[in-house]
Amino acid sequence: MQLTLPYSGIILLTGPSNSGKSTLLKRLIDEQQILPSEVISSDDFRIMVSNIEFIDWRNRPKEEADGLFDEYQQISQEAFDMMDALIESRCRLNKLTFVDATHLQPDDRKKYISLARKHHVPVMALVLDTAQETLLERDALRENPRGSRRIKQQFQVFKREKRFIKKEGFTAVYMIDANELANVEIYKRANPVEIDLHEGIDVIGDIHGCFDEMIALLEKLGYEKNEEDLYVHPEGRKFVSVGDVMNRGPKSLETMMFFLRHVKAGAAYMIDSNHGWKIARWLDGRNVTLSHGDEKVAEEFTKYEEMNDAEQSIQLKNELKEFLLEAPSHYVFKKNNIPVLVCTHAGIKDEFIGKQSHQISDFCRYGDTDGFDEDGKPIRKDWFVHHKKSVLIIWGHDPKPQPLLMNQTINIDQGAVFGGQLTAFRYPEQTFAAVKAEKDYSGADNNPLKEWEKKRLDPPNIGKFINGYSVLTEEAGEIRVFDDTVKPAIDTVSHFTVPIEQLVYIPPTMSPTPNPSSLSSYLEHPQEAIDYYRGHGIETLVAEKKHMDSRAVLLLFRNETAARKYIGTGTLGAIYTRTGRRFFDKTTEKTVVSALNEDLQRAGYFDTNQTDFILLDAEIMPWNLKAKELISSQYAHVAENALLDRTILKNKLSAAAGRHDAIQSWLEEHHEKVNNALVFKEVFQKYCWDIEGVQNIQIAPFHVLAHSGETFFHKPHMWHMEKNREFARYSSFFVETEWKLIHDESSAEEVIKWWKDMTEEGHEGIVIKPEFFIAKNKGKLLQPAIKVRGRKYLNIIYGMDYLERANLERLKKRNTGKKQKLALKEFALGVEGIQRFVNGESLERIHECVLGTLAMEADRVDPRL
Amino acid sequence: MQLTIRAEGENAEAVSYLLAKNPNNVYERNYKGHLVRFFYSQFSKNAVEATIFVTPDPIELIKNAASAYDITHYINDREFAVSSIFCSFIRTALGTALNGQPKEDYKKWVDHPFPFQFSFGPVASSLSNSQILDLFEPLGFATDISRGEANYSFNIKEKSSARWITLTGSTTLQTALRQLFVLIPVLDNYKHYYIDEKEIEKLQRYGEGWLEDHPLKEFILRQSLRFKEVYSLVEKQNEEKTDKQDTAKTERLNDLRYEKIIDTVHSIEPKEKVVDFGSGEGKLSLRLGFVPGIKEILAVEPSESAAVRALDRFEKAKKKEEFLSPVPVWGSLFYYDERMKQKDIMILCEVIEHIDEERLPKIMEIIFREYKPRVLIITTPNKEYNRVYDMSDELRHTDHRFEWTRAEFEAWCAERSHSYPYDLSFEGIGEENESHGFPTQMCVFKRTEV
């Protein structure tokens, strides 16, 4: 007798003591049909919790018998609690468990049925039907006989219960005759939703009857029609549909038949879906209303029935019904027996992966919904924010213009039937292929793609931000933004920044060296930056000259039409500061932006690069352009006061020098102090020059962040600096930035010397970056850049006397920890926001990144770092 | 920060006794890292010159200050300029002279006038040279003011903001020092550092005998006492500033505008749910609280400081009868806010002109398409009327991003609402001028389908 068992779940052995349960399991283990760890026995647990397997209270005086009975009850209780906890863990982990206990009472069985349901695993009963005489014979032979009275009692209960077991809700019940026991063999089924990746797969989004587009896509992917009229791939790849192959489109029936044949032949897979389920139930004769394009499917069936004879039609309907009803809620694709990819229709929870149940099917069909909106449409909740496992999930259902990677999930429904495109995601290559739909087949008034596009630039929902929120970034995972900092940031956006649609990026803050210089006369030195990166396994570094100036973001469009497409307004571009404010006044901005546009057009930049815009991270000089008031009222004012004070004092001391030894040393001290003040005064003037009109404005772009089709975070900084050189050729506004490569000791020394020379002249310093824009060590993001400011320059940051020994010693105790953490978070938010902007995502999704950075900048950090 | 005292003439050497400092020694004290030092640069029978100066510890000085997270805080004039900090540092060193308590033998010199010269600085002051002269000349000093150097490689400022003051006159040491201890803090550009209560206590004592008759007594007291009332004073100054821009006329216009809106609201049915967008300090919301029939007022404002003031205003009014307290809502027109949906009346009173014109269409689209108020009321200045105020091209408020003529406003309202079911009516608020219309214009949008 062969028993077919599921790959996971609970197998309850049922039968009185001595019915042969343990003996059967022991044989199966011995024959290596099952694993010892798959068997859980209540007797074992009694021993484990109490050292006692069985207590015999027969033939004892009453008070002793009662006491022993109590003890046995208590031991059993503890043993079952432990055992059930273990079974539950195994269910969670999707493992198979044989439970070896009598399970004679209905409550004993119900407990496991509900446990299995809770964890979406099958539960089966193996009922061992053994005659009472055999039970009694065996009992007499065992070490701890249960006694005939108990055995007889148990047998009576078993006889009564046997009939009901089948109706209790088990996935399956096997009745085994005692005589058959020795011949029982186990066949363990594989997990039907787990599939080996083999030569790779191509996952196809919602087809919705767009048969021609599907064929075109398969051909594009390299599938060829063979003699049996099947589309197969020469490399052995297979294709997978995420469901909704029918409904709304022109050829739903043909598409369903196509998948029926291909799935049957093992050439393809298809997943269950909301429309598939509806049609299946309709075919099953259930009372369902066909609407939202499902009525078109029914029409196609009617036509088919007209063209073919009745028998053929009925057969097709039956076959399709079975096919649709059997389609699994999801598939798990495995590489080297490790799950790497999950395909589902509308969504899935992590704990559902690899399991099957009605509840799971329902979730996978419809996703996570939260009631209905005023127009009667389901309000879709973002199920994917809860996805924590590393496995990639591919899904469809919710048409979006672009396939987006969101929290390690990708939606590949690009609304083919609404005139969008049919998308395929290729795995393991992780690339996309798509075929544009011939037209909008839906005839629907509210085309979701158009609705989406229309609302793409709608103002973000304040409710999502105001109490604090999280951003899921690809580079640094979840980043929390707290309400106490987000409110001032919203205030800033409401009063001061450029329009939200143009505010696509706020540059991250930059940390100085994590450790102060080990040299006694320096606060900062390149060595510590180099050490930081080397310590994290980065050997190639780029050192860029840092300009003393104001950081700026330039968003420059090809023309006004292009701008309208991306930000909703016709403009040639925007230039804004690190706080999102317009860099220049409106008129100057227009002049600068127009001139830049002209220069770039002349150079053919937009055409050559096939882009509608460029997004640049830059520094704009001179410093006084933005900071004139600050320079006048702070730096110049302080310099004048210091010099006046110290010069007069020095003169007085020098007149009195002969009078006392102390005066001589005070004089020396003030000699030094006057020099400090002079250096201070000299330093800040280095970064300022007079500006007439826009002529003397210099812009030094150091990152080309994005073009309309791509971001450049995967490029090394050498590439970005080459671009910087290129820009300097195109426009007189753009200036080149000097830079050097560090790849060994001698180049490191050269950079240090270069830094020393330039900073002694008063230049601000350098920025040291890892070779690649995004650098990680052991999966953790590293500082994207570290600034190393010059000795002289730091006078205007830490005060003119900061290098005096006592001052420097104290300043070296500075803590850059918070600054570094903020830098990483803001960097990840910046990269994420730009990626979303380039992907054409909604304004709200872009803005949450920008707002996050603005909020972090509202956090309190020592501004001198 | 330093002060040099010079005395010449007969018995000038007696000044050293009054100072209680030995001419053959230097004086140096360390207070938490701040150094107070004193030395004689000249000493003879008939000529004495001594300098007292303070070298503060710059790092200690800025510790625990309120503006610790402002970069400019670290680079400032506090470690150089003479100020109340300077006075409190040198008070102990000059205690004998200030109190007129030298050794018994020299008491006779306490009230003896010498020909003195006091020079001190640098002075960082917002007072003009002539204001400074007005402070010292009534005390009998010939006053000389010089400036530091302001020679820069680029055009940044005309003259230095660091000044040096030299006073010459015949006076007693005690009186002169007391005068300096009162007037140095008066000169100084006070910023929120170092509130030294002792300075105030000393004011009365140090002012004895001369402050009462000083022509600028009121000013001196006010400047000195700003330490005590610094917060309320700052508040007052701010109010004064905004008040200056608002003439009595515009004050009246504000009231007229509120009255007009309230009248309009009175006539609208239903009016259960009202939103005051950009409610600022809550003046309009407060008035709405007294309109019968209103059951909910949302006062929406993104600025925390304004919202706090609005809350105070609502709290005070709560005691009055028949007052419905508005609910302050932290919100912004630049975001979508589902709490604003389906209200009876939405009001944008003097709000749109504070928003960049290019950002307005999106805002209006969300109001009409998503919020769908039954009635929307918008008010904004009428630019034509600026002629009546004798204004040329300037805007009425520094934060105004634009001001519109009647035709511009009407065209804008029509364009913004044309694809939505609203009837528009325009009215003026304030005193009408025959050719320029009303100072404020108002549009009432009424939804024609619900």
From TrEMBL, chain A:
<keyword id="KW-0418">Kinase</keyword>
<feature type="domain" description="Polynucleotide kinase-phosphatase ligase">
    <location>
        <begin position="489"/>
        <end position="859"/>
    </location>
</feature>
<protein>
    <submittedName>
        <fullName>Polynucleotide kinase-phosphatase</fullName>
    </submittedName>
</protein>
<dbReference type="Pfam" id="PF00149">
    <property type="entry name" value="Metallophos"/>
</dbReference>
<dbReference type="GO" id="GO:0016791">
    <property type="term" value="F:phosphatase activity"/>
</dbReference>
<feature type="domain" description="Calcineurin-like phosphoesterase">
    <location>
        <begin position="201"/>
        <end position="401"/>
    </location>
</feature>
<dbReference type="InterPro" id="IPR027417">
    <property type="entry name" value="P-loop_NTPase"/>
</dbReference>
<dbReference type="InterPro" id="IPR004843">
    <property type="entry name" value="Calcineurin-like_PHP"/>
</dbReference>
<dbReference type="Pfam" id="PF16542">
    <property type="entry name" value="PNKP_ligase"/>
</dbReference>
<dbReference type="InterPro" id="IPR029052">
    <property type="entry name" value="Metallo-depent_PP-like"/>
</dbReference>
<dbReference type="GO" id="GO:0005737">
    <property type="term" value="C:cytoplasm"/>
</dbReference>
<dbReference type="GO" id="GO:0016301">
    <property type="term" value="F:kinase activity"/>
</dbReference>
<dbReference type="InterPro" id="IPR024028">
    <property type="entry name" value="PNKP_bac"/>
</dbReference>
<dbReference type="InterPro" id="IPR041780">
    <property type="entry name" value="MPP_PrpE-like"/>
</dbReference>
<keyword id="KW-0808">Transferase</keyword>
<dbReference type="InterPro" id="IPR050126">
    <property type="entry name" value="Ap4A_hydrolase"/>
</dbReference>
<dbReference type="Pfam" id="PF13671">
    <property type="entry name" value="AAA_33"/>
</dbReference>
<dbReference type="InterPro" id="IPR032380">
    <property type="entry name" value="PNKP_ligase_dom"/>
</dbReference>
From TrEMBL, chain B:
<keyword id="KW-0489">Methyltransferase</keyword>
<keyword id="KW-0808">Transferase</keyword>
<keyword id="KW-0694">RNA-binding</keyword>
<dbReference type="InterPro" id="IPR029063">
    <property type="entry name" value="SAM-dependent_MTases_sf"/>
</dbReference>
<dbReference type="InterPro" id="IPR038546">
    <property type="entry name" value="Hen1_N_sf"/>
</dbReference>
<feature type="domain" description="Hen1 N-terminal">
    <location>
        <begin position="1"/>
        <end position="229"/>
    </location>
</feature>
<dbReference type="InterPro" id="IPR024026">
    <property type="entry name" value="3'-RNA_MeTfrase_Hen1_bac"/>
</dbReference>
<dbReference type="GO" id="GO:0090486">
    <property type="term" value="F:small RNA 2'-O-methyltransferase activity"/>
</dbReference>
<dbReference type="GO" id="GO:0031047">
    <property type="term" value="P:regulatory ncRNA-mediated gene silencing"/>
</dbReference>
<keyword id="KW-0479">Metal-binding</keyword>
<dbReference type="GO" id="GO:0003723">
    <property type="term" value="F:RNA binding"/>
</dbReference>
<dbReference type="Pfam" id="PF13489">
    <property type="entry name" value="Methyltransf_23"/>
</dbReference>
<dbReference type="Pfam" id="PF12623">
    <property type="entry name" value="Hen1_L"/>
</dbReference>
<keyword id="KW-0943">RNA-mediated gene silencing</keyword>
<dbReference type="InterPro" id="IPR026610">
    <property type="entry name" value="Hen1"/>
</dbReference>
<dbReference type="InterPro" id="IPR024740">
    <property type="entry name" value="Hen1_N"/>
</dbReference>
<keyword id="KW-0949">S-adenosyl-L-methionine</keyword>
<dbReference type="GO" id="GO:0001510">
    <property type="term" value="P:RNA methylation"/>
</dbReference>
<dbReference type="GO" id="GO:0046872">
    <property type="term" value="F:metal ion binding"/>
</dbReference>
<keyword id="KW-0460">Magnesium</keyword>
<comment type="similarity">
    <text>Belongs to the methyltransferase superfamily. HEN1 family.</text>
</comment>
<protein>
    <recommendedName>
        <fullName>Small RNA 2'-O-methyltransferase</fullName>
        <ecNumber>2.1.1.386</ecNumber>
    </recommendedName>
</protein>
